Amino acid sequence: MNLNSDDPKLTAYALGELEGKERTEVETLLADNPKARQWVEEVRKTATQLEGELCRGEVPQLNSEQVGAIEAELALREQEAKEPKWQPAESPQRKPFLWRPLIEALAVVAILATIAAMFLPALAKSKRKAQKMAQREELRAQNEDLNQLAPPPSLPVPQPAPQSVYEPNRQRPASRPTSLDGDDAFRRGGGVSEQEETFRRRYATPSASAFNASSRFSTESYSPIADNGFLAVPDNPLSTFSIDVDTASYSMVRRFLNQRQLPPRDAVRIEEMVNYFPYNYRRPTDRRPFAANVEIASCPWNEKHRLVRIGLKGREVANDKRPPGNLVFLVDVSGSMQARNKLPLVKQSLRLLVQQLTESDRVSLVVYAGKAGEVLPSTSGNDKRRILDALDRLEAGGSTHGSQGIQLAYRIATENFIPGGVNRVILCTDGDFNVGVTSPGELLRLIEDKAKSGVLLTVLGFGMGNYKDSTVEMLADKGNGNYAYIDTIAEGQKVLVDQMSGTLVTIAKDVKIQVEFNPAQASAYRLVGYENRLLNKEDFNNDQKDAGDIGAGHTVTALYEVVPVGVSPDAPGVDPLKYQRPMPLSRAAESDELLTLKLRYKEPDGETSKLMTAAVTDAGRRYAQASQDFKFASAVAAFGMVLRDSPYKGTASFDSVWELAREGQGRDAEGYREEFLKLVESAKAIQGRSR
User: Fold this and answer.
1) Which of 450, 586, 573 is nearest to 519 (CA)?
2) What is the C-alpha to C-alpha distance for residues 282 and 627, in angstroms, rounded to an integer?
3) Which helix (H) or strand (E) holds 423?
4) Closest CA to 258 of 470, 51, 464, 55
5) Residue pair 526/229 in contact by the 8 Å Cβ criterion
6) DSSP structural state of residue 168
7) What is the DSSP track for 286-334?
8) Coil, strand, or helix at residue 610?
9) CB under 8 Å to 537, separation ≥6 — which residues?
10) Residue 517: strand pairing partners
11) Residue 133, Cβ neighbours under 10 Å: how many?
């Protein structure tokens, strides 16, 4: 296969329309053809620019006088260009054109409109269709029966958005500005006022125009998720899984809802949504890195069932007490990172982290596009101006050789390794690798090999439209790391400043949970979430089996929905066995224990796991007697099930989720739980308009 600019496959690849074998073939040829790669990037850039122009509104229509003036001006320019520069112009002096700036602007618009009509007619058609759909949805929402939309008495009625998600100029409340460039103040070497800082952290988000290209050319990918089902305790008494402290799914769900869309169901990972929030769990009082907390009450979406909440609380490590850091910022600067919610947001977020570094920290900066390079060698955390200047110089352009960047970043991290310190690569990307190692299998083997170096990985996802969540999540899971999705500068503040020690400092690695249920107390159970973290029961005692890590101060929550003995589970049964009979129960089964909780973990620099065990009884508490944290965690889990339209959601609905969350809101110093309530309102409003 030869590549040339007339090949339709090359254009399809540039617009993200190729999959499978064809995409692999084109990527292989692009790796050895710089001119073709440059052409692909130009096509992508042109498509993004045209998309932005089309999304800004209707192209202005020029009258005959304006068209004539433009043609006359262009003719004069063409004639002047043909005249030799060393000869004086012999043509008579023309009169100054007073409206020349306006005509030039109109000329640019006209040229863009002509190109759009020639090369991207589908975009214009899609825009008109979106506008018509938005108008119909608005009218339908206005005429909807209010009784069908009415929430409980205490829930404010969510107002439908006046415009479509595709409208870049959608009005926001005056009290929440669409953007505040606090980054400019940092660049000048000054600061921002307390009020501006509050706005910047809480409300500054990339404007809707930053998402123009993704609204149509969406190639986002998510790994498929199948909800865990109920398992019969006599046949499956052990439940084993790896802990997960990732929070990316909640931020992605928030991004979709803020854009007036329900998220794809595979973007909803319930454990990541639940673990996004801090909980007031009991802290460790001994030398162990974390403490285990268990609470049981009736299940809010199925009152006949019981809900078991297992909570782990990691040991706190203050920023001034954390070990010295050897950090390598690995930044994707390929052409796909040009959008405002990508590279510009990456730079703003890393700026916040740089401000927290000390003289004991070292920072390197590696970038990758068509190839990888070291922009900043290992530099003291005290030399903030040098680090910030290096960040400021980053610009997006070119293809995405992510594997080369990963190899270089790990090499630099290894060369500057600090024994007993925080050695970590911080990867900032949209996950769209298209040059070098691109297949999931090869990337998996690459990152597993690099993880053996002792260097940990933090993956920060950015952007939308071409976002590859499936790739980014895999890198974090196999790289002994954590994964967060940064959709706003406030989220960057949360991950890299407010929870800095948790993001960077690992207090326990390869943490596994195994629960044994008592068949005399429970007939069946299901683990809520953690579908991609399940382990075989033999993996629990296998120290060679990799598992999740816990950062300083992290809280980890897992929920089990348990069917008591005597209650029939809503799941198909199996025929009696022909060659075996049920084994008699042990004497321990006669106790009132519902389950035994076992945990294994390794010290950050250890290779042999340690065991923690605890027997747990069910006191029969009703849901109304549960703690506020229990109620809020169950509300978030129920929200995830409703968004996923899970077959196990029971009586859960957006209304019931809102009530549960309000009951469990409690002390909410950071405002995270209040934000969750608003997201539930938004989801309900979006669902109402889509009916």
Assistant:
1) 586
2) 13
3) strand 422-429
4) 464
5) yes
6) T
7) SSSSEEEEEEEEEETTEEEEEEEEEEEEEPP--GGGSPPEEEEEEEE-S
8) strand
9) 238, 240, 514
10) 595
11) 12
pLDDT at 201: 42
Q: How far apart are the first and last CA of the chain?
A: 48
> 522: which strand partners?
564
Nearest to 344 by CA among 169, 177, 183: 183
Structure-token match 């996950």, residue found:
431
Nearby residues of 80 by Cβ (< 8 Å), 6 or more positions away? 89
Q: Which residue has the tokens 């100029």?
A: 169
Q: How far, in Å, are 30, 48, 441, 629 from residue 26 at the CA level?
A: 6, 21, 18, 51
Q: Which two tokens stand for residue 450?
A: 């690099």
Contact predicate 296/619, CB 8 Å: yes
How far apart CA 278 and CA 294 sit, in angstroms, is 16
Structure tokens at 584: 């008699």
| Residue 189 CB neighbours (<10 A) | 8
pLDDT value of residue 605: 87
Q: Is 459 helix (H, G, I), strand (E, B) or coil?
A: strand
Residue 379 CA from chain centroid, whole number: 29
In one-letter notation, the amino acid at residue 629 is D
Burial of 384 from C-beta contacts in 10 A (0-12 / 13-18 / 19+): middle
Residues (pLDDT < 50) of the chain are 55-59, 85-99, 124-126, 128-129, 132-133, 135-216
Write down the pLDDT at residue 442. Answer: 74
CA torsion sign, 464 to 466 to 471 to 476?
negative
Pick from 649, 468, 531: which is nearest to 225 by CA? Answer: 531
Six token digits for residue 309: 């909440």
- State the pLDDT at residue 109: 55
Q: What is the pLDDT of residue 49?
A: 62
* Residues of the chain by 3-state class (helix, strand, coil), percent to 5: 40, 20, 40
Q: Give one DSSP letter per residue of 231-277, joined into a string.
A: EETTT--EEEEE-----HHHHHHHHHHHTT-PPPGGG--HHHHHTTS
Three-class SS of 49-65: HHHHHHHCCCCCCCCHH
Q: Which residues contact 39 (CB under 8 A, 6 or more apart)?
A: 5, 10, 14
Q: How far does CA 305 lie from the centroid of its chain?
A: 32
Task: Pick left, alpha or beta for residue 566 (phi over 0 → left; psi -120 to 50 → alpha; otherwise beta).
Answer: left
Centre a 10 Å sphere on the Cβ of residue 546 and count the other Cβ atoms it contains.
18
Instruction: Read off the tokens for 334.
Output: 């390929």
**Number of CB atoms found within 10 A of residue 645's CB:** 11
Distance, in Å, from the CA atom of 204 to the CA atom of 420, rounded to the nearest integer, reads: 37
Secondary element (H or E) of residue 507: strand 506-517
Only one residue has tokens 């149509």, namely 216
* Contact (Cβ atoms closer than 8 angstroms) between residue 475 and residue 458: no
- Name the β-bridge partners of 527: 560
CB distance 41 to 335 below 8 Å = yes
φ, ψ for residue 310, nearest 5 deg: -105, 120
Backbone torsion region of residue 485, taken as left when φ is above 0, otherwise alpha when ψ lies between -120 and 50, otherwise beta: beta
Q: Which two tokens stand for residue 17?
A: 């329309």
What DSSP letter does each residue of 72-90 carry, written as one string? HHHHHHHHHHHS-TTS---
Q: Which of 626, 627, 650 is nearest to 638 (CA)?
A: 650
- Cβ atoms of 493 and 538 within 8 Å: the answer is no
